[in-house]
Write a structure and sequence with these properties.
The protein has about 180 residues and is of the alpha+beta class. It has helices spanning about 1-60, 65-80, 100-110, 175-179, and strands spanning about 85, 95, 110-115, 120-125, 135, 140-150, 155-160, 165-175. A hairpin with a 5-residue loop joins strand 7 (about 155-160) and strand 8. It starts with a helix and ends with a helix.
Length: about 180
């Protein structure tokens, strides 16, 4: 009888040890993912968006035919899972991968682009609670983490004005990172 009790006690201990170990591994991986890896992926996504600004600016300066430019921009959108909108200094739409009305709604909520005598300027106009978090900023661009209220999600967005006064907007969802 003593051997059976010892055997059951050992089985219970091993069972509890294995279950505790599995639970601990799951808990540690969830904590690491939410605390460490999310920041890592957000930084990588921000850097990816910024690198696309250089590619788009290069394409715009190449004086490509309209169809060639459209195809190159579509490649960028598909390969990076981003939306891109480009206006020239005359405020004419050069390229968009999203409905224009969706872009205008988003643009009006946080930033203003002012075209004055062919010169474009970018500035933040929203100082309220909906103001996006600025992730990275330079002389001619700003990258933000914005809340997309109509989609109940977040996106990393780049607003930039090039030396040739093109206005570039790039948007990439962060929903997969947050999950």
């Amino acid at each position: 009888k003593n051997k059976k009790t010892y055997k059951k006690s050992l089985q219970k201990r091993l069972f509890m040890l294995v279950n505790f170990s599995i639970f601990a591994v799951i808990l540690i991986s969830v904590l690491l993912n939410s605390l460490v890896f999310k920041n890592y992926y957000m930084t990588r996504k921000t850097d990816l968006i910024y690198s696309q600004l250089g590619k788009i600016n290069f394409l715009l300066n190449e004086n490509l035919e309209e169809e060639t430019l459209r195809l190159e921009m579509e490649k960028i959108c598909v390969n990076t899972n981003m939306h891109i909108v480009v206006y020239n200094s005359s405020q004419n739409l050069i390229y968009t991968s999203m409905p224009e009305n969706a872009f205008r709604f988003n643009l009006n909520s946080a930033f203003n682009v002012v075209f004055d005598k062919g010169k474009a300027s970018l500035f933040i106009k929203n100082n309220g609670a909906d103001r996006p978090e600025i992730l990275k900023q330079g002389k001619n661009y700003v990258i933000t983490l914005s809340n997309l209220r109509n989609l109940n999600s977040q996106a990393i967005e780049l607003y930039a004005v090039t030396e040739e006064n093109h206005f570039i907007f790039i948007q990439s969802s962060v929903a997969p990172i947050a999950e």
